[in-house]
Known about the structure:
Blueprint: H1 2-8, H2 22-32, E1 36-40, H3 46-55, E2 60-65, H4 68-80, E3 87-91, H5 94-97, E4 105-110, H6 117-127, E5 128-136, H7 140-143, H8 153-165, E6 169-174, E7 179-184
Parallel strand pairs: 1-2, 1-4, 2-3, 4-5
Antiparallel strand pairs: 5-7, 6-7
Helix pairs in contact: 2-3, 6-8
Amino acid sequence: MMAGLRKHGRGCDMFPSDPLQAPLWTVLASLTHARRMLEVGCGHGYTAAVMASAGGPDCHVDTIEGDPHHAELAEQAFLQRGLSRRIRVLRGRGQSVLPKLKGRYDVVFLDGDWREYPSYIPHLRRLTRPGSIIVTANLNPLFGGWGGRLPGKPAIQSYLTRLVRDPHFRTYVVPGEWHSISVRV
């Protein structure tokens, strides 16, 4: 993936996930017996590849990416790593792709534009089953992360408030990590 990062250049606003978080996906795949995972915000594909590997050879990952160049880089990386049959890149923004998806996912990872997160909640209910787990990244604007200059604090606040109050989910915000973990009940 690093070669793709160098090719993409300085104007890129995508930040890869911390490799220290990779074991989380094995735990989540084991807890949910994951066969289908969904990621919103593919970037260059690092986390989707980790998710697919964590889920094992029978696990499939759908990953949504709005930036066509990022989607292309991710598809190339999956092909190079022999994962292209198990990872499908869906091009478009989360808010336009999520309504078109069918079936249930065992694990969902939100790692895209946090300003869209509030509109995802009805889709999260529809696309998950009891026992599914949702990991939400990029809660930084709410907690003053990344220097506190990022827009979107009201959207994150709305998303977390609605998620915590939703009777279909039990949610925990991970202190210091700016992530939340929710289980569908």
